[in-house]
Amino acid sequence: MEQAPGPGSGESSRLRPVRPAVERPSTRPVNIARFKFLGPAARSFFYDWEQSIRNTAALLRTGAGMMPEDRAMHDLIAELSAASEPFAPCWRDHEVRLHWSGVKEYEHPAAAV
């Protein structure tokens, strides 16, 4: 059985410099939307943070519409609405997006890209 990436799991050394920017102590599950909107390092982590948060809000809106009974998703949306100033205008845009594939661009301090 393949082990999930993480410290001590044989994770590629190329990923290790990125992990501290994404991880933070929390009792809540790791969530990329929470990191993008609430993580202090997110603005410098994503190459085009503005577009990234717009896409994420649109994906959340799509998911919320497709799964109206998903309490965890609605709790996340409520948390972001209350705690993230950038989330509100993205949410008000009412954009929806389906995620099939795409390119994710990150600022990687070790690779200088």
- What is the residue-averaged pLDDT? 76
The span between the termini is 33 Å
Helix-strand topology string: HHHHHH
**Main β-sheet description:** none
Rg over CA atoms = 15 Å
The proportion of residues forming helix, as a percent range, comes to 40-55%
Overall morphology:
globular
Oligomer classification: single chain
Structural class: mainly alpha
How many E strands?
0
pLDDT < 50 stretches: 1-16
Tally of alpha and pi helices: 6
Strand content: under 5%
Short description:
The protein has six helices and no strands. The protein is an all-alpha fold.
What topology emerges from the helices and strands here?
Blueprint lengths: L18 H4 L9 H7 L3 H4 L3 H18 L4 H13 L3 H6 L21
Task: Kindly describe this structure.
This protein has 113 residues and is mainly alpha-helical. Helix content is 46%, strand content 0%. The chain has six helices and no strands. The relative contact order is 0.15. Mean pLDDT is 76; it is low at 1-16.
